Amino acid sequence: MPLHVVAANGHTNIVCTLLLHGVHADRPDKHGIIPEIVTGESGRARTADVLR
C-alpha cells in the first residue's frame, strides 16, 4: 500500500527508493489496483513511467 500512496501523489524519488529496496511494482492493493494505474488516474506520467 505505501507504494500506491506515494505513486498517486507523484513522489517519483520515493517510488524509485522503494523499488530499489524490493517493493514489487506489479503487486495490486486490496481492490486489485496496481500502482501504475493509480498514477495514471492522478495524472502522474513521470511516476507511471518509473513503474513500467
Keywords:
single chain; about 50 residues; mainly alpha; Serine Threonine Protein Phosphatase 5, Tetratricopeptide repeat; 4 helices; Ankyrin_rpt; ANK repeat; Ankyrin_rpt-contain_sf
Topology summary:
Blueprint: H1 2-8, H2 12-20, H3 35-41, H4 45-51
Helix pairs in contact: 1-3, 3-4
Describe the model:
- 58% of the residues lie in helices and 0% in strands.
- It has a single domain (2-51), classed as Serine Threonine Protein Phosphatase 5, Tetratricopeptide repeat, CATH 1.25.40.20.
- It is mostly helical.
What's the short story on this structure?
The protein has 52 residues and is mainly α.
CATH topology: Serine Threonine Protein Phosphatase 5, Tetratricopeptide repeat
CATH evolutionary superfamily: Ankyrin repeat-containing domain
Give the DSSP E fraction (strand runs of 2 or more residues): under 5%
Shape descriptor reads globular
The portion of residues assigned to helices is 55-70%
- List segments where confidence is low: pLDDT < 50 over at least 5 consecutive residues: none
| Element order: H for helix, E for strand | HHHH
The largest sheet is: none
The total of beta strands comes to 0
Quickly name the level 1 CATH class: Mainly Alpha
Q: How many individual helices? A: 4
Q: Indicate the radius of gyration in whole angstroms.
A: 9 Å
Euclidean distance between termini CA atoms: 17 Å
- Overall structural domain count: 1
- Overall average pLDDT: 94
Class based on secondary structure composition and strand pairing:
mainly alpha
CATH architecture: Alpha Horseshoe
InterPro entries: Ankyrin_rpt, Ankyrin_rpt-contain_sf
Keywords: ANK repeat
ANK repeats: 1-30
